[in-house]
User: Which sequence fits this backbone?
């Protein structure tokens, strides 16, 4: 009996290292590398949120036909602020433009448009680095007399509506192309001894650059 117990103890002491080695080998076989952490990608172009300033240039005419006469050079500056609200970019913009004496027709002749101040609301849909937007607001236009036709003194209030597309070039600079329709209702003029009132309008196509803060 004692010999049997002694034999079992010796056998157990010999097989234990083999069992431990088998378990360790199994553990090494099933070992897998821990998952690595990847930082989220950052868009190089930035977002549309924040303030911006810029400049623009284009043409303004009483007709949408680019080959029509009476055109003027639209050149100026703009500044505004954008905010992303639920995937829609909304904001406001102010611009001051020199219109290069573009001509509008009134009874008895023409008047010249000299300067314009625009205060516009904006709303657009961002498509990554591209923003497609619409705009509408108040326009204040300064007119000059032309020939025998006299216009109103000071600035005349009107409205402005338009559409545009803006493309981020990097996180600070964007380029845009915009079309505006501007109307000035009840514009009073004096020609040939008579006073008249007429609604006048013009079309503006311009390109610009914005710097985003």
Assistant:
């Amino acid at each position: 009996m004692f010999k049997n117990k002694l034999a079992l103890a010796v056998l157990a002491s010999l097989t234990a290292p083999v069992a431990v080695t088998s378990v360790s080998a199994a553990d090494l076989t099933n070992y897998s590398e821990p998952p690595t952490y990847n930082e989220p990608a950052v868009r190089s172009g930035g977002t549309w949120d924040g303030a911006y300033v810029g400049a623009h240039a284009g043409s303004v005419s009483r007709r949408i036909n680019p080959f029509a006469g009476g055109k003027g050079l639209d050149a100026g500056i703009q500044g505004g602020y954008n905010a992303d609200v639920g995937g829609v970019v909304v904001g406001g913009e102010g611009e001051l433009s020199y219109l290069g004496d573009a001509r509008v027709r009134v009874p008895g002749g023409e008047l010249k448009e000299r300067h314009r101040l625009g205060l516009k609301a904006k709303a657009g849909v961002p498509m990554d680095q591209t923003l497609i937007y619409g705009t509408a607001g108040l326009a204040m236009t300064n007119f000059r007399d032309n020939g025998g036709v006299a216009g109103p003194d000071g600035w005349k209030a009107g409205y402005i509506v338009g559409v545009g597309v803006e493309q981020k070039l990097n996180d600070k600079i964007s380029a845009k192309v915009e079309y505006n329709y501007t109307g000035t209702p009840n514009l009073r003029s004096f020609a040939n001894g008579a006073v008249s009132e007429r609604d006048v309008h013009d079309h503006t196509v311009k390109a610009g650059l914005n710097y985003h803060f």
In short: The chain has one helix and eight strands. The beta strands are 50-61, 72-85, 88-106, 109-127, 130-144, 155-168, 173-191, 194-212. The helical segments are 2-29.
